[in-house]
């Protein structure tokens, strides 16, 4: 069994892999990392990888290291199964998306879209070269910004509301603007990439991927845990290089 950890701004996702199969996923709040201790108590792993965009305390890193025969911290110096032409400042989640896309579609141009705290668009060519993309505010951040930076707009949260084109209340107008605006933004990006790159596949991942992806039609694949698959691919690549 391999342990894969993706520590993001909002949640730490913990994936348990049996060979190539992701058998279980657990989420721990990024504000309460101590929950990882209880989750992993009594368990041991063949390999473990930690990818993080937040600071992880040394005591937790040492604990994870003690849990596996082979431990990898994914950082700017980690060997990659892809070629990275983007800045070394790229988040581990974005690199992992590219590694997973390359593994799934090794002979195609791929656009991987992460829908989490931020929206990230990430492009990898059919030759396995990650050359960049874009970053914009995520769904929750857009709702929060409207409330924070105005004096009268309410904080709106998604439940099971119908999203209409023309809102007839302040709340429904915000829902229309934020949700539909994100969908139109993504569709516009996808259309532009398809015009520029032939044989393009599009993958949507992240916490909001099912909600937004299901509203966008059938032109893209929805793989919420794409980052975990990518980190696992990087883990195996480095373990094999060491051996």
Task: Briefly summarize what is shown.
The chain has 243 residues and is of the alpha/beta class.
CATH third-tier fold name of the largest domain: Nucleotidyltransferase, domain 5
Count of all domains: 2
Largest sheet: 6 strands, mixed
Number of helical stretches of at least 4 residues = 7
SSE pattern, N- to C-terminal: EEEHEHEEHEEEHHEHEH
How would you classify the helix and strand content by structural class? alpha/beta
Overall pLDDT confidence: 93
Strand content: 25-35%
Describe the protein's architecture and organization.
The chain is α/β, with parallel strands linked by helices. Helices cover 36% and strands 29% of the residues. It has a six-stranded mixed β-sheet with strand order 6-9-8-7-10-11, with helices on both faces. A five-stranded mixed β-sheet has the order 3-2-1-4-5, with helices on both faces. β10 (200-205), α6 and β11 form a beta-alpha-beta unit. α3 crosses α7 and α4 crosses α5 (170-196). The two termini are 18 Å apart. The mean pLDDT is 93.
